[in-house]
Write a structure and sequence with these properties.
The protein is α+β, with helices and mostly antiparallel strands and 259 residues long. The protein contains 12 helices and 5 strands. Strands 2-1-5-4-3 form a 5-stranded antiparallel β-sheet, with helices on both faces. The longest helix is centred in the middle third of the chain and has 26 residues. The two termini are 31 Å apart.
C-alpha cells in the first residue's frame, strides 16, 4: 500500500472506530518503529489510555505505568511542566549522560524497548496528548532518521489528533455514535468482566476507574454524588476481592489478555 493511500485511510477514519489502528499502522510504516502508544493527559490527573500496539511486556503498561510510574516518565513530566509542544527525544528530557544511560537500562529491563520518541500535542489549556513510538534495538542512525521524519510529520499529526480528540472527552464510556476501536473492544470486554458479580452500573464505574478518572470526575460524568461513587467503588473491590486500583488493573489486564 502506498504512503498516500495509508494517509488517506487515516484521514477517512477520523472519528470512526479504526482511527487508532490506522494511525499506528501509518506511523509504523513511516518511522519503522516497533510500537505506538497514545495517552490522553489532563492537568494533575492520571493519564487516560487511548491506544497501543505494544506486543511485548504489555503488562508493565497496565500494572505499573498507568497506576503510578507514569510520574517517573521524563516525557510525561516535561509535558506536565508545560513544556512547548513538539517532538521530544530522551536526550531532550534527560540531559545528563549517566542519567540517560541509567534510565535506558531501567526502561529496557521493564519494557524490552531501548529508545522512544514522543510527540506532545496540546489539545487545550488543560488537556494534551502524548504519542510514543518505541524501538527495541540500539540503532542511532535509524533513531535519528525517525526523529527527523517525525519532526516533518508533526504539523500533519497535530491536525489529525486535534480533529479526532480535540473537541471530545477522553472517556471511553461516552455514548457517542462513533466509538473508537478501543471503546468497542473495551465495551465487549466489560460485558463479561466480573459477570455476573458486578451490576451494570458497577461495570460502568469500573471502566471509568480503569481509565484513571477520580471519584469527583466519575460523579460528574455519571450524574451521581461523590459518596455514591465511593460506595460503588467499595462494593466493586469487595465483589472482585481486591483492595487497590493496581489490583483492579491487574485483574482487568488478565481478563483482556484472555478474551
Amino acid at each position: 500500500m502506498s504512503d498516500i493511500q495509508q494517509l488517506a485511510d487515516v484521514v477517512a477514519s477520523i472519528k470512526s472506530p479504526g482511527f487508532g489502528s490506522m494511525l499506528a499502522a501509518y506511523l509504523q510504516s513511516r518511522l519503522e518503529c516497533d510500537h505506538v502508544l497514545m495517552l490522553g493527559c489532563r492537568t494533575d490527573k492520571h493519564p487516560i489510555y487511548l491506544y497501543d500496539s505494544i506486543s511485548n511486556n504489555r503488562d508493565f503498561l497496565f500494572q505499573r505505568y498507568l497506576t503510578g510510574s507514569y510520574l517517573e516518565d521524563p516525557f510525561y513530566r516535561a509535558a506536565q511542566q508545560h513544556a512547548q509542544a513538539g517532538v521530544l527525544r530522551l536526550a531532550d528530557v534527560i540531559r545528563e549522560p549517566h542519567a540517560l544511560r541509567d534510565y535506558r537500562d531501567h526502561f529496557t529491563c521493564k519494557t524490552a524497548m531501548y529508545d522512544e520518541l514522543c510527540l506532545f500535542t496540546r489539545l487545550d489549556s488543560h488537556r494534551w496528548l502524548l504519542l510514543f513510538v518505541g524501538y527495541g534495538d540500539e540503532n542511532p542512525a535509524r533513531h535519528h532518521k525517525a526523529y527527523q521524519e517525525l519532526l516533518r510529520l508533526q504539523p500533519l499529526l497535530d491536525a489529525l489528533l486535534q480533529q479526532h480528540w480535540g473537541a471530545h472527552s477522553f472517556s471511553l464510556s461516552a455514548g457517542a455514535a462513533n466509538k473508537t476501536e478501543l471503546q468497542q473492544f473495551l465495551a465487549r470486554a466489560l460485558a463479561s468482566f466480573g459477570e455476573p458479580v458486578l451490576s451494570k452500573r458497577e461495570q460502568e464505574i469500573t471502566l471509568l476507574l480503569i481509565q484513571g478518572f477520580d471519584s469527583q470526575e466519575i460523579a460528574e460524568m455519571s450524574a451521581i454524588s461523590v459518596g455514591t461513587v465511593k460506595n460503588h467503588r467499595k462494593k466493586i473491590y469487595a465483589k472482585l476481592r481486591i483492595a487497590s486500583l493496581s489490583e483492579l488493573f491487574q485483574l482487568f489486564l488478565t481478563h483482556l489478555l484472555s478474551s
